[in-house]
UniProtKB/TrEMBL annotation:
Family membership: Belongs to the mitochondrial carrier (TC 2.A.29) family.
Protein known as: Mitochondrial glutamate carrier 2
UniProt function note: Responsible for the transport of glutamate from the cytosol into the mitochondrial matrix with the concomitant import of a proton (symport system).
Catalytic activity entry: L-glutamate(in) + H(+)(in) = L-glutamate(out) + H(+)(out)
Any one GO molecular-function label of the UniProt entry: L-aspartate transmembrane transporter activity
GO cellular component, one term: mitochondrial inner membrane
Superkingdom of the organism of origin: Eukaryota
Subcellular location: Mitochondrion inner membrane
Transmembrane segments: 14-34, 213-233, 283-307
GO biological process, one term: malate-aspartate shuttle
Solcar repeat ranges, renumbered to this chain: 8-98, 106-202, 213-302
Keyword annotations from UniProtKB, A to Z: Membrane, Mitochondrion, Mitochondrion inner membrane, Phosphoprotein, Repeat, Symport, Transmembrane, Transmembrane helix, Transport
Claim: S-adenosyl-L-methionine is one of the keywords in the record: no
Amino acid sequence: MGEKQREFSLLPKIINGGIAGIIGVSCVFPLDLVKTRLQNQQVGPKGERMYKSMFDCFKKTYKAEGYFGMYRGSAVNILLITPEKAIKLAANDFFRHHLQAKNGSLSITRQMAAGGLAGFCQIIITTPMELLKIQMQDAGRVAAQAKSAGKVAPKVTATKIALELFKKHGILGLYKGIGATMLRDVSFSIVYFPLFATLNALGPRKCVGSDEAVFWCSFLSGCAAGSFAALAVNPFDVVKTRLQALTKAEGERVYSGITDAIIKTMKYEGPLAFFKGGACRMIVIAPLFGIAQMVYFLGVAEAMLGIKH
């Protein structure tokens, strides 16, 4: 056991995960904003909706709020994505390392267990990050609907939202929707990590005798596994996004919990509503995890710390 633990170095994995998260989020944030607005959009009684498609949402948001409007809420995301991605990627490696058999093999069920545990660990950071990010991302949609109704929506900032939640509900106020976040992230990690490992193992190695794939293989494997897992758990993401949207436009439904959100969404919008923003989420997650895995496996932190990768 001692030899097995000495072989695992946690610090560089945490640093690599943080670097990977910042690069990935900076590249795909505008698409993530569009995804949030599409998922929060509710269909009116006559079938009316603000955004007809992903492209329509992107066009209207850019026209109304400009280039920097596409990055609304990115500051809090970039700030917290470092520990979030670091925990997710490093925890998966940690659990895979300690769940492997004596001969070094790792069954699919153990890979799924490692992924699920990694997803569970990350929610301590993911939940408040997503809660604040969603308010910022959705503020433009709520403001536009308020304007069309002849009203003015109050301006919001991540700091203001966080302080108000903390004053009203304490630290638990920042963890609204934690059940739905856990449901999404644990299930995503159960699907993503074993699939990524399987695809990554099929590609060419860095050199003869190496167990590491070339960087482009890790990138493509991350993209493919990320997009598939994203679509698979999109219904949970829709529920989580709606539960965490604190500000609703006039006439929009309010949900009391996961079950209530599922029932009302199914009743008023049908099963396809659970796949709102699905294509957008796939486009977001694919490069996000492709970039993350590529940076992670390049061993940037090992080079910085002078550790042999």
